[in-house]
Amino acid sequence: MFYKNKANSYREILPGVSMKTIVYGEKTLMSEFFLKDGGILPTHDHIHEHTGYLISGKIILTIGEETFDVEPGDSWNISGGVAHAVETLEDSIAIEVFSPRRDEYIR
Question: Going by C-beta distance under 8 Å and a sequence separation of 6 or more, which residues neighbour residue 1?
């Protein structure tokens, strides 16, 4: 599969949190998230392992009991079933890859 970038293809999933699926295959899915300054992704967990990379902005990422100040170029991996949350300190863009793929993120 090949994906041609479309700037206007974000969809809001929570107030201040928008995402677009970039590309996916049988086992993985890659998404781009736009996080508005002051946005909150509340504590949650899911079966998907995911690996992320912050492209721009600044966030506070909580994984389990640990909290990290995340800046552009920083990356993370969160195992399935582990609670995590995000607080956005400025407009931010992050890329995340999920396995198994998140079918609910496919339109």
Answer: 23, 24, 25
Contact 63, 13 (CB under 8 A): no
Domain that holds residue 47: 35-105
The pLDDT profile of the chain, 107 residues, written as one tens digit per residue, is: 787 777 678 999 889 999 999 999 999 999 999 999 999 999 999 999 999 999 999 999 999 999 999 999 999 999 999 999 999 999 999 999 999 999 988 87
Q: Any idea what the CATH number is for the domain that residue 80 is in?
A: 2.60.120.10
* Structure token digits, residue 22: 């970039």
Within a 10 A sphere around the Cβ of 54, how many other Cβ atoms? 21
Measure CA 26 to chain center.
Answer: 19
Amino acid at 68: F
Q: Is the pTM of this model over 0.85?
A: yes
| Alpha carbon distance 87, 94 (integer Å) | 13
Number of domains in the chain: 1
